[in-house]
Amino acid sequence: MVGSDVQLSCVYPEGNSFDLNDLYVYWQIPDKPNTYSVVTYYLSGNNSAGHSDNHYKGRAQLSLDSMKRGDFSLHLRNITPQDEQKFNCLVFRKSLELKKILEVVVTLHVAANYSMPVVSGPSQDEEFTLTCTSTNGYPRPNVYWINRTDNSLLDPALQNSTVSLNERGLYDVVSILRLGRTPSVNVGCCIENVLLHQNLTVSSWTGMFTGTKDSFTENPADGTREWGGGAVPSILAVLAVVVAVATGWLCRSRCPSRSYAGAQASRPEVEVTGVSSPSVFTNLSPEISLCLQSESELTCHPRPLPLSSQEHV
């Protein structure tokens, strides 16, 4: 993992003990074709290991005590993406005329966790646009957009992903998904780190939304599904108006010429023949006529009717 320490193993298989004055130890990496750059080394008679590559200065270390026991492993600190390569361990014995007694090739794979994806949007123009970002991961990621309803992959042609190396040598990714104006759908952005067997997924809803911040209608063409805090109160208010208007008509039929008709006469009347689905009524009077029957006569009086402050479809 980037930023962590690692030990690259190079151990003599027979478990012999060694005299440090009889050893030459090299750790090196490929530089150019048929050439190598030395990461660190130990030469017979030295009390410490040396370095020739500045990139590994202060980060690569050999243990003198371990080498006496035949363990020539390299301890590498603060791993960076540039460390992902093949390391060669070579051990020679001076007493054997610099015969090579051990050679080990260790391949180091470097990884880093991506940040949890952040999905922004959607924008609501001619198409819906979602943007997914994740940073500081390694190696290069795979990016997928998923329909969370059935976990199917969305068409790659709908997305545009950009992966770039940042100043730390790690990858940042930005992926943009563009969808046509469709009914609401739950989509997820997935960042896959193959080396770590890791998938980070964040979901977001997108679709055709209408209404206010607190209330919207899904797929308004059929007018069958409503959501939001203001929808139910609006329906109740409309039903209350229907009952009130019906009561007013009953009053007028029973109280012909001498009944009160001030509020009804001064404002346009609304004829309601039936309500099969939620509707919005305009120009409704804030007052209705209620009929009160005493012992000998029937009279009508205006009464205020509370209405919802907002009505949404």
UniProtKB/TrEMBL annotation:
Keywords: Adaptive immunity, B-cell activation, Cell membrane, Disulfide bond, Glycoprotein, Immunity, Immunoglobulin domain, Membrane, Signal, Transmembrane, Transmembrane helix. InterPro entries: BTN3A2-like_Ig-C (IPR053896), Ig-like_dom (IPR007110), Ig-like_dom_sf (IPR036179), Ig-like_fold (IPR013783), Ig_V-set (IPR013106), IgSF_BTN/MOG (IPR050504). GO terms for molecular function: signaling receptor binding. PROSITE patterns: IG_LIKE. Pfam families: C2-set_3 (PF22705), V-set (PF07686). It is a single-pass type I membrane protein. GO terms for cellular component: external side of plasma membrane. It is found in: Cell membrane. Signal peptide: none annotated. The keyword tRNA-binding does not apply. One of its GO terms (biological process) is regulation of cytokine production. The chain crosses the membrane at residues 227-251. It comes from the Eukaryota. Belongs to the immunoglobulin superfamily. BTN/MOG family. This is ICOS ligand. It comes from Camelus ferus (Wild bactrian camel).
